[in-house]
């Protein structure tokens, strides 16, 4: 019944508090809706394997280019399927362990999603990534030891706004030589390998295919990268609850370490 799969379980930090505030502040409700729409599996599938540099395409050819890209993503999704489920503020992505393209695409998606949620909605994510036995089907069941483990990594061990890997999982990723491109996405402390927001910026702007695109999308990400540290420090200066403040203080240190070296 079970297949051996890479699985990422992702959660939006502070989501419950935002929902409580949204009853009185309509702008927050709108931001929550936009953030959740950006996590919609259908939208993620549409951009999973490529995007257009639209400003470089003549207007009269843009619709044709979009159609070609859409068909490419459909074909690639069939060849290298990534299963995506989301509920409330949580997102689960999985791919077969022997599908290199699909499994590495999950990491690329997480980097882009992390930046998008931060830049557009000031939201941070936390998660766990592992490799193990899993049942995960589109619009269907999701269960297995790997799901339990990924949830445990997110809820009990990640603590700060980061996505942590099980050791055996990162070891499997690194057996494939193409993973070298993704190394700028990975940080390490005394206990874990993990992905953080500043590492996402570093990867997207230096090593991803988008880094060589000279596109508006890249320029927007580069602009967000220049603003990330001041944005974090401004949030800290507003004296949020201590448990929240500690997460931003960790992120402040992490960002200075990665982006100001």
What does this structure look like?
The protein is of the alpha+beta class and 261 residues long. It has helices at residues 15-22, 26-38, 41-46, 59-79, 100-121, 145-158, 167-174, 197-206, 216-237, 242-259, and strands at 3-12, 83-87, 90-96, 125-136, 142-143, 162-165, 187-188, 193-196. The protein is globular.
Comma- or semicolon-separated keywords:
18% strand; single chain; 261 residues; eight-stranded mixed β-sheet; alpha+beta; 10 helices
Strand content: 15-25%
Query: For the report, how would you describe the main beta sheet?
Result: 8 strands, mixed
Q: How large, in whole angstroms, is the Cα Rg? A: 18 Å
Structural class: alpha+beta
SSE inventory with pairings:
Layout: E1 3-12, H1 15-22, H2 26-38, H3 41-46, H4 59-79, E2 83-87, E3 90-96, H5 100-121, E4 125-136, E5 142-143, H6 145-158, E6 162-165, H7 167-174, E7 187-188, E8 193-196, H8 197-206, H9 216-237, H10 242-259
Parallel strand pairs: 4-6
Antiparallel strand pairs: 1-3, 1-4, 2-3, 4-5, 6-8, 7-8
Helix pairs in contact: 1-2, 2-5, 5-8, 8-9, 8-10, 9-10
Short description:
This protein is an alpha+beta fold and 261 residues long.
């Amino acid at each position: 019944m079970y297949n051996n799969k890479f699985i990422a379980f992702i959660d939006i930090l502070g989501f419950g508090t935002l929902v409580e505030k949204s009853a009185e502040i309509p702008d927050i409700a709108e931001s929550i809706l936009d953030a959740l729409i950006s996590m919609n599996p259908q939208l993620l599938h549409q951009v999973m394997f490529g995007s257009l540099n639209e400003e470089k395409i003549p207007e009269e050819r843009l619709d044709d280019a979009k159609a070609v890209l859409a068909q490419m993503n459909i074909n690639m999704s069939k060849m290298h399927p990534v299963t995506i489920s989301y509920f409330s503020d949580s997102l689960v992505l999985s791919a077969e362990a022997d599908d290199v393209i699909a499994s590495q695409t999950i990491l690329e998606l997480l980097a882009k999603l992390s930046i998008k949620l931060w830049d557009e909605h000031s939201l941070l994510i936390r998660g766990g990534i592992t490799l193990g036995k899993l049942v995960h089907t589109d619009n269907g069941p999701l269960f297995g030891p790997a799901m339990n483990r990924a949830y445990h990594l997110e809820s009990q061990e990640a603590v700060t706004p980061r996505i942590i890997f099980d050791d055996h999982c990162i070891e499997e990723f690194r057996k494939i030589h193409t993973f070298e491109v993704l190394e700028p996405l990975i940080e390490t402390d005394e206990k874990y390998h993990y992905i953080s927001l500043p590492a996402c910026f570093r990867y997207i702007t230096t090593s991803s295919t988008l880094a060589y695109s000279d596109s508006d999308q890249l320029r927007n990400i580069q602009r967000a990268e220049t603003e990330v540290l001041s944005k974090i420090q401004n949030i800290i200066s507003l004296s949020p609850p201590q448990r929240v403040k500690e997460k931003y203080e960790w992120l402040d240190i992490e960002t200075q370490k990665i982006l100001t070296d």
